[in-house]
Q: What sequence folds into this?
């Protein structure tokens, strides 16, 4: 059996855009109301400034992130900040089903996402534990996709080798980066697209194909 034909032992799913529908505008609106500013102000202060990227890289602890938000006018506690932050993510039922089916078939399943410690603290309340073995966040790795170091550190964290891994992401640049390291990867976003990608590498063979209404 060639490396390319081996059944993957580990599947990595991008979080926002694959496992979850991602709505940053909803999060910005909630933060704006809590901070007494406009959504445009939130975008400028948190995202355009590079602060969010620094959070994704693990530069700040949750406490430090909360203090920065308080300097922006946020007056609530960390629990409220977490609720506002997580509001951008809505799990896709069909993807949760696929992840659960993979785990039931002996495959290790993990998310692989560019996100910081605020979301990491509440990811288990967002996604059912039956569907995922582990969550790999960029803030744990000190690097973000498509940086090759993010993939190398993620593999090391999972104690996995590139030929054993299959990666699904909605962004072409992340797929291309993974492939340069010998990781099999496919670009997909909807549940049907992801299922087809999984079947293309020999996964879900024992699971009947189903039509999913939730994408």
A:
């Amino acid at each position: 059996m060639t490396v390319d034909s081996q059944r993957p032992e580990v599947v990595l799913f991008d979080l926002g855009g694959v496992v979850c529908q991602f709505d940053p505008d909803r999060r910005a609106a909630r933060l704006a109301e809590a901070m007494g500013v406009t959504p445009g102000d939130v975008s400028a202060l948190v995202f355009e400034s590079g602060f969010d990227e620094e959070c994704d890289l693990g530069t700040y602890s949750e406490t430090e992130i909360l203090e920065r938000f308080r300097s922006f006018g946020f007056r609530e506690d960390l629990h409220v900040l977490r609720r506002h932050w997580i509001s951008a993510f809505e799990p896709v039922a069909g993807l949760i089903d696929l992840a659960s089916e993979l785990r039931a078939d002996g495959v290790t399943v993990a998310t692989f996402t560019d996100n910081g410690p605020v979301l990491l603290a509440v990811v288990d309340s967002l996604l059912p534990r039956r569907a995922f073995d582990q969550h790999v966040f960029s803030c744990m790795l000190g690097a973000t996709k498509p940086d090759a170091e993010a993939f190398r550190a993620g593999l090391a964290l999972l104690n996995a080798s590139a030929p054993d891994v299959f990666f699904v992401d909605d962004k072409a640049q992340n797929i291309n980066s993974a492939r340069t390291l010998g990781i099999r990867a496919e670009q997909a976003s909807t549940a049907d697209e992801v299922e087809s990608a999984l079947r293309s590498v020999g996964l879900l063979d024992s699971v009947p194909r189903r039509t999913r209404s939730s994408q």
About this structure: DSSP finds eleven helices and seven strands in the chain. Residues 178 and 185 are 7 Å apart (CA to CA). The radius of gyration is 18 Å. The longest strand covers residues 108-113.
